[in-house]
Amino acid sequence: MIPYVALLRAVNLGGHGRIAMADLRAVVAAAGHADVATYLQSGNVVFTSDTADPVVLAADLRHRLAAEVGVDTPVVVRTGTEIADIAGHNPFLDRQPDHTKLLVAFLAEQPDAELAARLTVPAGAPEELQLAGRQLYLHYPAGVGRSKLTAAYLEKRLGVSVTARNWKTVTALAELTGERS
């Protein structure tokens, strides 16, 4: 069994995409996956599966969530190994002791190389970013709240679906998937 984490985009934010974590766990378990657990209320689910293709898992979970609980939202899936690697390689960690100012944006797929090469932060913004495969490490030295470096900004420039998690969540998910290895 392979440990995975599925990250749902924009659930339980205000009145948008409401889904109870018990319902999310039930959908994932009914899909035949094991060791299912959720983390926080923001659409993070850890599980194990015999399915070897994360893209297939993401598409299936999105379809099931839409059909069974009426929430149609992009789902990004990473293996436990990928999450552990992401958690172990944040390029901004040594410069930023306040982990609330560090995020990882998970991309649904590899962006077009030309679009990725032109990706920059908004003009005059203090943020920093570093693309590493299908994730972006983000540093918000002034905080995330008023930043123009948003998921919508990233999606528009990269042409792929994006969902972001703060550093505490990333490291917790790495720990949870590690427990399932």
Please give a quick description of this structure.
This protein has 181 residues and is an alpha+beta fold.
Fold and architecture overview:
With 181 residues, the protein is an alpha+beta fold. The chain folds into 2 domains: 2-79, Alpha-Beta Plaits (2-Layer Sandwich); 84-177, Alpha-Beta Plaits, CATH 3.30.70. 33% of the residues lie in helices and 25% in strands. The chain contains 6 helices and 8 strands, in the order E-H-E-E-H-E-H-E-H-E-E-H-E-H. A 4-stranded antiparallel sheet has the order 2-3-1-4, sandwiched between helices. The protein has a 4-stranded antiparallel sheet with strand order 6-7-5-8. Helix 1 packs across helix 2 and helix 3 packs across helix 6 (167-178). It is globular and about 50 Å long. The protein starts with a strand and ends with a helix.
- How many strands appear in the DSSP assignment? 8
Can you tell me the overall shape?
A: globular
The CATH topology label of the largest domain is Alpha-Beta Plaits
Gyration radius, rounded: 16 Å
Put simply, the count of helices is 6
Strand content: 15-25%
Give the count of structural domains: 2
Q: What would you call the quaternary organization?
A: single chain
The low-pLDDT segments are none
Order of helices and strands: EHEEHEHEHEEHEH
The largest sheet is:
4 strands, antiparallel
